[in-house]
Design a protein that fits this description.
CATH topology of the largest domain: Rossmann fold
Strand content: 25-35%
Largest sheet: 7 strands, mixed
Shape: elongated
CATH superfamily of the largest domain: von Willebrand factor, type A domain
Structural class: alpha/beta
Number of strands: 20
Length: about 450
C-alpha cells in the first residue's frame, strides 16, 4: 500500500514545478499514467480471473447464436425503454425475451456421454466411384439419453444425422455416401453433436472425432495391348555411342591394352590368330518424363484440363506399373511419383493457374530438370499452337523420342508430326490407348 501511495503521490506532484507554479500535462500523458497504475493494481486480479473466464464464461458465450444475441440486445433495449419512459409493453416484451432465453438454457444444459467412430470404407477413390462411410454412436453413460443431432461436415456442406433415444450401452449406426463427381480433396468431419432449442437461440456443439481427408483421384484409363508394349522398354534405348561393356552387341575389334579380358571373343581369336574383343552399343536406361501444363489459358474448357490431368496420370501409372523411371513436372513444380498413390494424391491437389508459364517454358524446365530422359510426353491443351509445339520440341535433345498429347473434348483421335515431334490429339480419355497405338504405326 505504501508503494502504491508513493506512486500516486508522484503522479499528483508532476503538474507542479519546483517553484510551486502549476503546469499543464497533456491528456494523453495522464491517460498513460492512469493505465499504468490500473495495470499494476488489476494484474494480480486478472491473472486469477482469466483461467476462470476461459473455462466457464467463454464457452457459455460461444453457445449464443446470432439470433440469440439479437434477442438479448432487444431485451436489454426494451427493458431500458420501459424503465425510462414507463412503457409497460416494452417491459412485457423484455420479460418474454428473458423467458425464451431461460427455456433455451434448459435445452442445452446436460452432459452427453457418447463414443463416436467415423469410418470411411476407402480414403482414396476415383472420380465416379462410390465413397461410403459410417458413423457408429454408443451411449457410454449409465442412463438413457434423449434424442440429439449429429453434424458431419463434408467439404463445404454439412450432413445431419438424428440420434434416437438411446439406452445405456446402445449403439446406433448410420451409413452415408459422398458424391465424387469432381477431382478434389474433401475434408470429412469432425463429427459434432449439437444441442439447441427449437428457436436456435442457443446452440451447443461438442466435437467427437478428428477430420479425415478423402482423396477423389482423377479418373485414369488402362493402357494395354500394343500401346503398353510401345511404352515398355526393358533394355532401354540404344544410342550410336560405342562402349566396351553393355548389352547391345555391335561388332568385334582388335584388342587394345586395358580392355576387359572378359569380353575377348575366343573363337574369333583362335581363327584369326590375334586377340579380338566384343564392342557394344551404349544403351540408356528407359526414363519417361511427363510435362503437364496447368496453364488454363491453353485449354478450351475445364473438362479439357481435367482430361489432361487424367491422361498424364494414366501415363504415369503405366510407367510405375512397368517399374520404369518416371518424372512428372508442371509449372508449379515436380510431382511425387515414387508410387502410384503419391502420384495420384499430388494430381488430385493440382489447381490451374493463368499466371504460370506456357508449354514452351515448361518444356525447357523439363529438359533442365530431367536431362537423362529417353521418352518425353507433353500433355497440353488445344489452344497450344503448332509454332509453340515446334519450339517445345526444339528443347528436346537428339535421340530422345518426344510426343505431344493435345486434349480436346469431343475431337477425333488423330496423329500428326511436327518435325521430330509426334502430336497426338485426344478427344476422350478412353481413346488414350488408341492414340498411342497410332503413334506405334
Amino acid at each position: 500500500m505504501k508503494s502504491s501511495a508513493r506512486k500516486v503521490g508522484e503522479v499528483l506532484s508532476r503538474p507542479f514545478h519546483s517553484n510551486g507554479k502549476p503546469t499543464r500535462l497533456h491528456p494523453a500523458s495522464l491517460w498513460r499514467e492512469g493505465a499504468k497504475l490500473a495495470g499494476v493494481h488489476l494484474a494480480p486480479t486478472w491473472s486469477k480471473a482469466a483461467p476462470w473466464l476461459r473455462k466457464w464464461i467463454l464457452p457459455a458465450l460461444a453457445t449464443i447464436s446470432m439470433l440469440g444475441r439479437v434477442v438479448i440486445g432487444a431485451a436489454v433495449l426494451l427493458c431500458i425503454l420501459g424503465v425510462a419512459f414507463g412503457w409497460q409493453e416494452a417491459k412485457v416484451a423484455a420479460l418474454l425475451a428473458l423467458l425464451l432465453l431461460l427455456i433455451a438454457i434448459g435445452f442445452v444444459l446436460g452432459k452427453s456421454m457418447y463414443a463416436v467412430k467415423l469410418d470411411l470404407a476407402r480414403t482414396r477413390v476415383a472420380v465416379g466411384d462410390h465413397a461410403v462411410g459410417s458413423i457408429a454412436v454408443a451411449n457410454t453413460s449409465s442412463r438413457t439419453v434423449l434424442p440429439a443431432a449429429l453434424e458431419l461436415p463434408v467439404g463445404h456442406a454439412t450432413a445431419l444425422f438424428h440420434l434416437p433415444r438411446m439406452a445405456p450401452s446402445q449403439i446406433h449406426e448410420d451409413l452415408f455416401t459422398i458424391p465424387t463427381t469432381r477431382r478434389a480433396v474433401i475434408t470429412v468431419g469432425p463429427v459434432r453433436s449439437v444441442r439447441a432449442d427449437p428457436l436456435q437461440l442457443l446452440r451447443r456443439q461438442l466435437l467427437w472425432t478428428e477430420p479425415t481427408d478423402l482423396y477423389v483421384h482423377p479418373r485414369t484409363t488402362a493402357i494395354g495391348g500394343p500401346a503398353a508394349g510401345f511404352l515398355k522398354d526393358l533394355e532401354g534405348l540404344t544410342t550410336r555411342d560405342l562402349t566396351t561393356s553393355d548389352i547391345a552387341f555391335h561388332a568385334l575389334r582388335d584388342y587394345v591394352p586395358g580392355d576387359d579380358r572378359r569380353h575377348i571373343h575366343w573363337k574369333t581369336t583362335a581363327r584369326t590368330g590375334k586377340l579380338m574383343v566384343r564392342q557394344f552399343e551404349e544403351t540408356r536406361r528407359s526414363h519417361m518424363a511427363v510435362a503437364l501444363s496447368v496453364n488454363t489459358d491453353e485449354y478450351e474448357s475445364e473438362d479439357d484440363f481435367e482430361m489432361a490431368i487424367s491422361a498424364a496420370a494414366s501415363l504415369g501409372r503405366q510407367a510405375i506399373k512397368e517399374n520404369r523411371e518416371l518424372s512428372v513436372i508442371t509449372q508449379r513444380g515436380p510431382i511425387r511419383c515414387e508410387t502410384g498413390k503419391n502420384l495420384l494424391d499430388d494430381m488430385t491437389r493440382l489447381q490451374g493457374n493463368t499466371r504460370r508459364g506456357n508449354s514452351v517454358d515448361l518444356a525447357r524446365t523439363l529438359m533442365d530438370a530431367v536431362p537423362n530422359a529417353s521418352v518425353v510426353f507433353f500433355v497440353v491443351g488445344s489452344r497450344v499452337t503448332p509454332a509453340q509445339l515446334r519450339s517445345a520440341a526444339a528443347s528436346v535433345p537428339p535421340g530422345v523420342r518426344a510426343f505431344a498429347v493435345r486434349c480436346y473434348t469431343g475431337a477425333q483421335s488423330a496423329r500428326a508430326n511436327i518435325a521430330d515431334l509426334t502430336v497426338l490429339t485426344l478427344g476422350e480419355l478412353d481413346d488414350l490407348a488408341i492414340v498411342l497405338r497410332k503413334a506405334v504405326a
